Amino acid sequence: MLKGNAIVGQSGGPTSVINSSLCGVIQEALKQEAIEHVYGMRYGIEGFMKNEVIDLGKEDPAIIEGLKYTPSSALGSCRHKLQEGDFAPALEMFKKYNIRYYFLAGGNDTMDTICRMEQYCKEQGWELRGVGVPKTVDNDLCCTDHTPGFGSAGRYVAMSVKQAGMLARDMKRVDQYVIFQTVGRSAGWLPAAAALAKDSCDDAPHIILVPERAFDRDKFLGQVKKVYDQFGWVSIVCGEGVCYADGTPVSASKTADKFSNIEFGAMGGTSAAMMLHQMIKEEFGWRGEFQVTESLQMCAADRANQSDIDEAYACGKRAVELAVEGTTGVMVTIERDSTSPYKYSLGTAPLKDVAIGAKPMPDEFIDDENLFVTDACIEYLRPLIGELPKYVRFQGGNVE
Known about the structure:
The structure is a single chain. With 400 residues, this protein is of the alpha/beta class. It has 13 helices and 13 strands. It has helices at residues 18-31, 44-48, 61-66, 87-96, 108-123, 150-170, 189-193, 217-231, 272-284, 296-299, 306-325, 351-354, 375-385, and strands at 4-10, 35-41, 53-55, 99-106, 129-134, 177-182, 207-209, 234-239, 288-292, 330-339, 342-350, 366-367, 372-373. The strands form three sheets. The protein has a seven-stranded mixed sheet with strand order 3-2-1-4-5-10-11, with helices on both faces. A four-stranded parallel sheet has the order 7-8-6-9, with helices on both faces. The chain has a two-stranded antiparallel ribbon with strand order 12-13. The radius of gyration is 23 Å and the shape is elongated.
């Protein structure tokens, strides 16, 4: 048995259930005989190297339990990309606190951090077991059916589009179109989730634009006109990362983060929704609006799915079990055993396989002709988003 201390951190953007994973890690680690102390790194690996460490074992158990339903990142987060000069100082910190078990909740950049740090420690003769806990609202991690956080963010998007669509429908004599932008730089899972808002053919959304498909201005405007002629208004959902065929973002942003990811609409740049709004206004002269919620879909705990909370917790718990059993260099994965009824199990994937890039939506989920998603996509999404409220509307026509 490898005896020592454990440390857990959070990286990248939050989700409404990432703290549920944190709760799972802490509660399970505190039970393990092999783990003497459970520490938390404040602000990820960046804070850890500055000795920003707290003793989670001294926290009130009620606070740890309350993490299950607390949004954002309780430990604080970062987007620090490991540099060559970071490895030695980080190893000294692992030695200082006798860290033998290392857990991070995050996306593919986070899995890359664990992978590289665990490998460096191995080369230096320091036994460290590193296990990743999946997290991202984008749902774009490789090797897993879906990620904790996506279902709740998808529900936020679907609910927002549904309710905003009702408003737009009833106000169509004033505003003829509404555009809702989701986060997600390279995968269309979140805009696709908006399709769950649709009960009738005239319900929002009418058009869904995903980064997996090149944006075609003429095709887009043609579909907008077709929908308008049919219903008198148009609901559009777009991912922030939609690009033209040459790779130029519709948002026209030029700003990149430390991982060379384009920050769409950042630092005074435009947004995809703003550009689409401008196109429609210039082409048709209509009045409309755009909605860019940014981080709200990452932290809306009031719309979190209980199943998402439960899966996030289970992934955190399983990460500790794996590490104590002797497993290292992997991320916990969710495997779908059945869609109807929905059932899942937990597996693992090598960190190096997860860190390679983003998982796009498959072709069979995208309806290119109608700028929408397919029934197969909706079937995949439904158990993750959950049932949405049913709203009523008048059925009668005008008095003759």
